[in-house]
Amino acid sequence: MYNRGLKIYFLAAALIIVSLTGCKKWLDTDAPLQVDENTVLSNEQGFKEVLNGVYLQMGGKTVYGRDMTFGLMSVLGRSYDTTISPAIANLYYQGARYNFQDPEVKTTFKDIWNNLYVSIANLNNLLDNVEIRRNVFTGNNYNTTKGEALGLRAFLHFDLLRMFAPSPAAAGLNLPAIPYVSKISPYAAPVLTTGAFIDSCIADLKTAESLLSQTDMTTSRFTHWGVKGLLARIYLYKGDLTNAQSYALSVINSNKFPMITAVNSDWMITKEHVFSLYSSFNISAEYYKSVLNTTPPLGFTTQNQTALYVTGGGATSDFRRAFLDPTTGVALGNTIMPRKCYATNTNLSNVLPMIRVTEMYYIAAECATAALDSLKATDLLDSVRVHRGLPRYTLAALKRDSLNIEIRKEYQKEFLSEGQMFYFYKRKNLPFTSLPFTKVPVVADASYVFIKPE
Amino acid sequence: MVSFAAGILFITGISSEVFAETGGYYQQVPKDSLPKKMIGKVRITVKDLVDGAAVDSAYISVGIKHGYSDNNGIIEFDSVPAGIMVTITKAGYISQSKKVKADLQIRIGKREMRSSANNYKNGLYERPLEHFSGAATIISGNDLRKINPLNFTEALKYYDPSFIVTRDNLNGDDPNVTPSVKIRGSYNFPASATIASQTGTTVTGAQINPSVGDYVASNIANPNQPVILLNGVQVALQTALDMDMNRIEKITILKDAAATSIYGVRGGTGVLLIQTKLPQKGDFTVTYSGQVQVTTPDLSSYNVLNASEKLQLEQAAGYYNSNPSLYQSRLYQVNKGINTNWLNIPTRTGVGSKHTLSLEGGDDDINYGLDFSYNNIEGVMKGSNRNNVNLGGYISTRIKNVVINNYLSYQRSNASNSTYGSFSEYARQNPYWNPYDSVTGEMSRVVEEYTYQGNTVRFYNPAYNGTISTTDEAAYSRLSNLTNINWMIGHGFRLNGRFGISKQSDEQNYFLPPTHTAFAGYTPSQFFNRGKYNQTVSDFLSMEGTLNLDYTKKTGLHQFYGSTGLTGLETRSESTGIELVGFTTDKLSDLAFGNAYSNTKPTTGIIETRLVSGYGNFAYSYDNRYQFEASVNADASSQFGENNRVASHWSAGASWNLHQERFFQENKILNQLRVRASVGTTGNQFFQSYLGHSSYNYYTDRQYIQGGSGFGTRGIGLGAFLTGFANEDIKAPETQKQNVGVDAVLLQNRLSVRVDAYRNKTNGLVLPVVSSSSTGFINFTYYDNLGAIENKGMEFDLNYTVIRNVKKAITWTVRLNGIHNEDRITTTSEYLDKVNNANDAMSVDQTRPQPRYVTGQSLTGIWAVRSLGIDPATGQEKFLKADGTETFTWDASDKVFAGDLSPDLLGSFGTSVSVKNITAGIYFNYQVGAKYYNQTLADRLENADLTYNVDSRAAGNRWKQPGDNALYKQLSINGMTTSPTYATTRFIESNDLINCSAIALGYSLPINIIEKIKAKTLKLGFVANNVFRTGNNNVERGIYYPFNRMYSFSITAGF
């Protein structure tokens, strides 16, 4: 009797335990019209898809897909000299005037801010899960995924800083800038000073550098070389020229990014990309058209094309001159369009440069100039020039002033409508009166600091 | 059925039992073979099966010997043959047989058909009311039907003032709009303040176009609604309303912690238990009940101008200054005698009918019933109907001490809304417009057309839409099955199992044909976009299983009760909606004829919820004097976050029956007195699902690959993005409930008094977290347990029997009850501040008060800017700013709490008389201390656009010249453009009222007449609802749909 009772209790207890453990699973209902995190991130492929998601977000219209590259950012960076009518393209008209208070400009800033922080949140959730689900990774993939996400997080943060906070040249490193979000949370991360923010970027990048493999030459993802290139860029922005130069040279001296001497329809010069972004293929053409098919399209006058590429140290042989397609526009009396963004070769047209190896030469040259090593600086610039159909400078060592002018000109020529020039001017805190190719006057209270959304 | 679930129900027949078993004995023991062994002495103890108490004077037979048990339930026999059967019988008990033994204990069960009417049942267990310490009200179906034969909620509020029913002024008595109901007070913020929305993102945690049977969605939308259990199984309020009211046996309202804590997260807002009738045993009976209900619109609150008055007013306002020819043409119409009463155009006297047929019969072994009902409710707007069909089959069978029953039912409801559109359209049509074509007499599409400054101005006839193929219908069918198993284990134990499943499918069709006046303004280029068809198909599946174990034991003066049980509940809700535009002609009124989808994707939603709930209750009574009870509950739900998967609740209650005390002397004043108190916790889960889940979605239109890539890249660049971030700590809001009550019976059992005081504090209400944009929480919202609401109050119910003359069969009773409730927000959140700010924006309609959620204030406050009236000098309204200074500028930030929509005291009173077989009653609802905003004065007077008709007060009391002490601003052609009146205290009025909710008459035909037609019963009834009301009638009532009066005549016959 006693034994039987015990058996019954045992059975009942077992039943309860089984049903309770089953119960836990039964209660775990996933949202049917969404894919639960546990499902998406159950394997390595899922992590890759989330990273792809971030790249796709970066390819959005208001971010790198258009306005942070050949759109608004290139208008601000004076890659176009078109007289824009406010009735046709108010955003670009107001952008050209640096009228950041304009509602449309403000909305674009808000979209940029929101989109990049959304991508950062996606990366942070991924980074949380990389640790939680470390066991799903095989081989070196844990390191690769974590490194890529950390690097990308720094990349996005750094661009936010360059847009929404004053440059160190203008305001130093000790003013509060923007939040550096290193953990996904509904509650806001603290606002850091520019210096602390940059240090956070560098810290993330250093970790990424140690995690990512030097042999991975995928440029459409953020790899070891992207980290190094970005570090060079950030150190330069911070004013740490020693580190900037050393990272720039490490990319150059790796010899993994040889420069080309002819374009061969590859107007984005994808072979020189240290980090490039695929603009979403289905819609990239639409983005280009939204900028370049307006009347008149954003572009350059032939006069300024000559002024930029030929006058001074240039030459008609500079193949970058053909970034601007002389067959467009002129007949109608309009400016000519940057062919670069409107490439006909569909294979390469949606590859947007994020970091190019030539920038490394320029960074190194700038650091060398500052270190009074004119010979080295000139040599670095010449290395690019010989790959661009230009002769070497007549002097083996240009004067410091000339070097600075030449570096800026090289930037202008090289990164036409890539969205880099704005950052260059901002980094240098160039007076607005000195901005080149200005058709409409800049507003009186112009600033290089984007307006943060409320 | 609930009674089975909780009741000590043991259906059996004494006759068959005895014969079967004693017969067995005789067959087993042939006469010629004498038993080999004898037992010297046999002692038999008879005890009650349930409480173990000794049963005296039971008849016991052992072979040829027999006798009766003594006071200790004992009988002794000498020299009994071994192996023969002992049979025990006693009136009111089920007979029992057992093989004889030297010391035999036999427990016999009471032959109780139905559990006692005086028992408290909560759907899980049952206790005598005297042993229950909580606050609950039980109302029988017959009482409900006396007051309102169509809608039980309207009747329920008469009997229990804590059951608060609100029909909003906009939707009036629309038969297809569910009233909002709550028990005692508010426990949650309204859904509009708790669900954050992002542009371009659909809320995925709450069903968008739910089935009307979807109680999960219904509770999120109405988060103060109680949980409704129909025979123990959760249903939506609409499902209960569509059920045939004749089937209601009784309704129990569970209010306090002692009553609701066992329901855990389903008990926080109170529980409404609806128990349906069980088929009667006995001869096969057919009962028919027929009813005709006549509804007439109550338009007494509408006072609009007639044709000549309107024209005069327009002239006075200068409407025709620039267009005198229009005045002439209109004057011509007026002189021709055109004076349309537009209020009558879309309204009607609705004549609906209801038929109920039930068949029942059977015996203790097999009992069955079939019911059928058809109910056609006709609203007072033309074409507004609700058609309900109910079919049900019940069967119950008993195998020894196990009773199994099953009820299978089918419910179908077809609702159609008036194709005439909103009633407000008609209230504003000008009376000098003729809706009918003067030649053909048919409804014309355009009521007036003239050319002014080269532009053609047309006014369209809203009634035209009612004559074309406009469709606005919703239909559902619902199949449900409920199985109950009840096993009397013995020794005081009883096991009950219940499993219910129901599946409902809904379809909504909304079609506006191309000639509908909504498309009147479409330009020729939009010609092929005219017409709109919206179809929503939804489904709701609900499965619920419960297992309960009950224990009852009585030892001496001690009475113990113990109950424990486990419930599992699963729901699945699906909905898909599509909308097509571009219909060529009215004739092609089907989805298939649309030209294109108006959205690229259908609106879809799928929500699944699961809940496991376990409880335990222990109650003890000493000598029926002191009672103590305690409950614990643990709930686990899919809606809770991973770290808070289980929510536990508890309650404790005690009561003291003073009238059972020895010191209590029989007297003529106080007959019974009982005090009780309870405290404990419950919760609610009326918040979105999946808040505890992080989720992703995939980009469906792009890949992360290089352009021009080949087939090999298909799918390799898929990208996912975050669509929700889990709050793994999210839990159910918890309501702490306290209740003290007194029950007394006085004046020779003539006056019964019940008074309860309560306090409910709900903490951890689920609210959105305001995330700054740098968090990246742009396209989704994180929710947390943030807000808190407290309600407290007092309720009372007095019932006095003025005359109780049994000889003459005269009874006269009077009832008065009421509730005073105060809701108070105790914690708000940043999000609610954001809602308040948004509600103060000028982009929001400020001509009506907007809600504001402020700590320390009620949820139903009217917030308006303090008015100092119309300034005689300027004719402008003068306001008092928040800082006390005077101003002419209205500013939303100057709004103050200027009154509460909720009354200070709310309740009912009434009386009923029955003389022999005639009953009559009159019943009222009242409220005191409530305020309302007179929207009519705002919309139809000061802000009125004279292009359309206005309230008749628009002409008088207007400011005309400096020095005028006027009530209203100066008359203008369009008040909204010249000087809009925004929420002002000037229009806040008292809302004290008395409403005659019902006048009822009933007559049971005398037996001699009934016998002639071979019937068993025959009753006639008449109920008139909402006959009249006193109180402020200065405001138009029923804006989109009028209120109605209803008269119903019924006949019930049993054969």
Describe the structure.
The complex is a heterodimer of chains A (454) and B (1055). By secondary structure, chain A is mainly alpha-helical. Chain A has a single domain (42-434), classed as Serine Threonine Protein Phosphatase 5, Tetratricopeptide repeat (Alpha Horseshoe). Chain A has helices at residues 2-27, 37-40, 44-58, 72-76, 90-96, 103-132, 141-164, 168-171, 194-211, 224-238, 241-253, 281-292, 302-309, 346-349, 357-370, 374-386, 400-414, 421-428, and strands at residues 35-36, 176-179, 191-193, 273-278, 351-356. In chain A, the strands form 2 sheets. Chain A has a two-stranded antiparallel sheet. Chain A is globular and about 95 Å long. The relative contact order of chain A is 0.13. Chain B contains 14 helices and 50 strands. Among the domains of chain B are: 7-108, Immunoglobulin-like, CATH 2.60.40; 119-279, TonB-dependent receptor, plug domain (Ferric Hydroxamate Uptake Protein, Chain A, domain 1, Beta Complex), CATH 2.170.130.10. In chain B, helix 8 (307-317) runs antiparallel to helix 9 (324-335). In chain B, the strands form 10 sheets. Chain B has a 22-stranded antiparallel barrel. A 5-stranded mixed beta sheet of chain B has the order 10-15-16-13-14. A 4-stranded antiparallel beta sheet of chain B has the order 3-2-5-6, covered by helices on one side. The chains are: A mainly alpha (454), B mainly beta (1055).
Question: Beta-strand percentage of chain A?
Answer: under 5%
Overall structural domain count of chain A: 1
Described by strand count, sense and barrel closure, the largest sheet of chain A is: 2 strands, antiparallel
Q: Total helix count of chain A?
A: 18
Shape of chain B: globular
Distance between the termini of chain A: 76 Å
**Share of helical residues of chain B:** 10-25%
Instruction: Write down the overall geometry of chain A.
Output: globular
Q: Report the top-level CATH class of chain A.
A: Mainly Alpha
CATH architectural name of chain A: Alpha Horseshoe
Helix and strand content put the structural class of chain A at mainly alpha
Q: Helix/strand/pairing class of chain B, anyone?
A: mainly beta
First-last Cα distance of chain B:
25 Å
Radius of gyration of chain A, CA atoms, in whole angstroms:
25 Å
Mean pLDDT score of chain B: 87
